[in-house]
Design brief:
0% strand; mainly alpha; 325 residues
């Protein structure tokens, strides 16, 4: 018996009319991935840090800050000009660094200001964690932000230690007789510890850092320039506020301040610097008022920046919600 010829292949079913099977087919919108908590944690962390910064700033400003602002207010405009230059030296340096590393947009400057404020007001390095979250939420800008943020933080610390060691080598021989022996021993031990930590990072740099050496040297150079600008401009600002004290003496005191700020074993750095400055300058009431006013002005600028950045964030989120709606 002859085999029957194979049946012709079945024709493709005709496309369903519009709307057919809508009850069984999942809508296209449902196929989009749902934004989980894992993907949203950078934004949540940013919001928590911002709220904590506002609370911390309000507590400090309304606690001791306003008292500092009510004291003798410098009348010379030069004080405020150079104070602001000194204030913005750090976020500008960070922006230059991350502009080189990631080609960040201008909007990163606000995030870098928040990074600085969080480090000042909250727990140390909380600002670095915030900026990592900010960069992590913008993965189209950079694939692995943790390594770069870590390296920039470490190199910044090394630059601070190097500047403190150099300035200490200059300032201590000139003023060690005015320092109590116990305090002097603590300073010398702290300088030795800072030197040891710096050398350790340099010896194990291949295991510690993830950025190329050329970029690390660029970061170090920018940080050293930032430290110089910060020290010089705040010294000039204080010379405008107290013109009876020369800029040279202020620079000497700023060298001591930079040294004291990097000492890991000194418990009360501000008090040590204030005592050191009073021994050289005298005018303890005027100097105390100036230090209080400078600290309060810093808190006030912190508060203004957080307010401006917060308003900008609310405007952006409102526009995004309207667009999504």
């Amino acid at each position: 018996m002859a085999a029957e010829p194979p049946a012709p292949p079945a024709a493709d079913p005709a496309p369903s009319p519009a709307g057919a099977g809508a009850g069984s087919a999942a809508p296209l919108a449902a196929l989009k991935p749902v934004q989980t908590l894992r993907r949203r944690w950078p934004a949540l962390l940013g919001a928590v840090v911002t709220a904590a910064m506002l609370g911390g700033l309000a507590g400090e400003l309304f606690g001791q800050g306003l008292a500092g602002l009510r004291r003798a207010v410098p009348t010379a405009a030069g004080f405020y000009v150079f104070f602001l230059i000194s204030y913005f030296a750090l976020p500008v340096a960070d922006f230059v660094i991350f502009r080189r590393l990631w080609h960040v947009p201008a909007g990163a400057f606000g995030a870098l200001n928040r990074k600085r404020i969080a480090n000042d007001v909250l727990v140390g390095y909380s600002g670095d964690a915030y900026f990592y979250a900010w960069a992590r939420a913008r993965t189209e800008m950079v694939a692995a932000p943790f390594g770069a943020v870590k390296d920039v933080t470490i190199v910044s610390g090394i630059a601070g230690n190097v500047s403190a060691i150099v300035l200490g080598a200059v300032a201590l021989p000139l003023g060690y007789e005015l320092i109590e022996p116990a305090t002097l021993r603590t300073i010398l031990w702290s300088m030795g510890l800072a030197t040891g930590l710096t050398l350790a990072f340099l010896l194990f740099s291949s295991r510690v850092f993830s950025l190329p050496r050329r970029q690390l040297w660029f970061i170090f150079g920018v940080d050293m320039l930032r430290i110089v600008v910060n020290c010089v401009t705040i010294a000039i600002a204080w010379s405008f506020a107290m013109p009876t004290v020369s800029v040279g003496l202020w620079l000497f005191l700023i060298a001591g301040r930079q040294l004291v700020s990097r000492l890991p074993l000194v418990p009360n750095k501000d008090l040590l610097f204030a005592n050191f400055a009073i021994l050289f300058i005298g005018q303890d009431q005027a100097l105390s008022d100036l230090m209080a006013f400078t600290a309060a002005s810093t808190l006030l600028v912190h508060m203004c920046i957080i307010a401006v950045v917060g308003i900008e964030y609310l405007v952006e989120r409102t526009q995004a919600w309207r667009h999504e709606g």
